[in-house]
Amino acid sequence: MSILHYDVCPLCKSSAIAEERKVKDHSITKEVFALWRCAACDFLFTQDPPVAEEAGRYYKGEEYISHSDNQEGLVNKLYHKARDFMLAQKYRLVNRVANGKRLLDYGTGTGYFTDFMVRKGYSAEGIEIDTEARKYGADKFGITIRPPGALFNVLPADSLDVITLWHVLEHLYEPQTYLARFRELLSDQGKLIVAVPNHKSKDAKAYGAYWAAYDVPRHLWHFSPATMRRMMESSGFRVVETHHMPLDPFYVSIMSQKYKTGGGLVSGGLKGLGSFFSSSADAERGSSVIYVIEKGDLSPA
Ligand SMILES: [Zn+2]
């Protein structure tokens, strides 16, 4: 396997980087990866991940299509309720901050959010790397879902009012390349909305190496509010609002508890509740954080 080794911090280029802890790929391969931290800017990243071309096998086994439309069973009922709740929450946030209705959902998966926004009157399209997910979403909803190359080849500059990335930025190789392109595609008043896990959250601290949202090596970058601000500012953006995602602490804590002890719906749920209250008081302590981002100054790197 070919790996990608970082000799300097992928965010600030400092060479003061060192291993912080080892984390297992609990969900798919059980392989162990190292998280490295930069002493200069505090950025945490997955060291030696597979190169992009060989990352596919780490995504095998994620059956998000097959269970997403199975209506049977309590777990599935809860899953659908949770999904509908989150779609409505995302819509309200986007609709409040957006200055127009041209929307791109980058990493849209099977397109539920894109479809929801189309039904709310948005001119929304998705981009998705997975061929099957693209086809599924396009067939089910009749929406446009393009492959990633479209970001650079098809969409014209200054053509979007909102770009959303729901749990996507942490998966992107060379995130700064994408951010530069998002900046070109957005209008001057455009908004970038990014949701990522927060490794400084209460549940991350509680579970340590078992914290499910490390999700190595699929998650290449492990953001805190401070490092997110730094990455955005280095790419000509600025963070203007932060919000928590109310369901994430429960999901992440229950998964983490499972990785740690093999079960523990109740204890995971209780930890999730603690994290939920903590993030309700301060979004930046949340298990995941939603960042509302505007164009800022493009400072010389
Ligand atoms: Zn750094």
UniProtKB/TrEMBL annotation:
Membrane-spanning residues: none
Organism annotation: Neolewinella aurantiaca
GO molecular function terms attached to this record: methyltransferase activity
Entry keyword annotation includes Disulfide bond: no
Single GO BP term: methylation
Record flagged with keyword Transferase: yes
Protein name, entry field: Class I SAM-dependent methyltransferase
Keywords: Methyltransferase, Transferase
Source superkingdom: Bacteria
